[in-house]
Amino acid sequence: MKPVRVGICGLGTVGGGTVNVLRRNLAAITARAGCPIEIVQVASRSQPETLDITGIEFTTDVFAVANNPNVDVVVELMGGYDVARDLVLKAVNNGKHVVTANKALIAVYGNEIFEAAASNKVIVAYEAAVAGGIPIIKSLREGLAANKILGVAGIINGTGNFILTEMRDKGRDFADVLAEAQALGYAEADPTFDVEGIDAAHKLTILASAAFGVPLQFDAAFTEGISKLSTVDVSHAQELGYRIKHLGIARAQSDGIELRVHPTLVPQSQMLAKVDGVMNAVLVEGDAVGTTLYYGRGAGAEATASAVIADVVDIARAIHSDAEVPVPYLGFKAESMADLKVLPIEEVVSGYYLRIQAKDHPGVLAKVASILSDNHINIESVMQKESEEQNGLIPMIMLTHTVKEKQINEAIAQIEALDDVVGEVVRIRVECFKG
Ligand code: HSE
Questions:
Q1: Residues near ligand 1 (Cβ within 6 A)
Q2: Residue 386, exposed/middle/buried by CB under 10 A (0-12, 13-18, 19+)?
């Protein structure tokens, strides 16, 4: 059978991994695809020093790949927004299929790109954009197609999870762990994307659309990072039986969907709490299947290449079966997309961990409890520490049952206004998942 000819744009960590895995596993990949996958051209800012590209045409111009008549599939592995968008649209308008690992591109420009792909009758595949090697897009769009998806929650940024794990287990310094993640090739070019939750919000936006059949709405996602997280809260959470994870959560409510990334207390007994280091995991709850969990490497050369090449194989199969796009881009037919709004963070429902610094006076705990009660907030547990010698303040730690965020905001404002309470109340959301 005629080979499918691939042009790769970007020869960084993932580009190099893709070349190596395609060559190493060529026989198995050919058997699965039904035809050989041939890399005919690669583009990169400079000639690679360590990667062997013998026999492959090299260019520094990525648009030469999108315009190359010998290329059937353009693989975009450069990252970033604007050049990647122009390249992908150029390739699509030239009638080429596209595989991309670029979550920022899909989260921000995906609606436009999918529309262009549909008009040009080509495929744009993006499995590698979310959770690296974990086939979560395929699971949502195909394996779970029978289900009404109730919610998705994921550890979808390996760098952030690595930092939280090292801080918790080894008491390591935030900056030191981040530098190691950068050296290992896990962190984004701009590491604030990792620690402030932007990278996770890109991925969550894509997951939510594939889960609920809504257009991609990155701008509506709520993001809170881990950079302000204090080690005292990490250790109080442990004492209460929880671990703090940086989660992306998308959940269906009756009048919209929650779309949020923030540090979250998760019960230590749950599998999501045990996902450590750079590993990723995505929990999906479907009405028929119940709770399912997908775990694996979310970044790195060959793990991400695994997802990139799987997409190329899908395209090769589609090319040879003469099918139109076999699976809708977000799993739902364009004419059947839902018109559900993303709810503002005030409408989100969650449990809360509160840490309140109070003067050691009689009746403070009672006043705080009465504010929570007046706001219809049910307290789940209370932990009061001895006063801190240097300032004479007592930390009061509370866990609440689930309430709307606007109720907790109101209560926090009233607690912070008490004369006996000092500084801001620390608030971290708590989630207990089924299963
Ligand atoms: N910076 C990302 C992470 C890379 O740490 O998970 C994969 O998207």
A1: 132, 157-159, 186-188, 194, 199, 298-299
A2: exposed
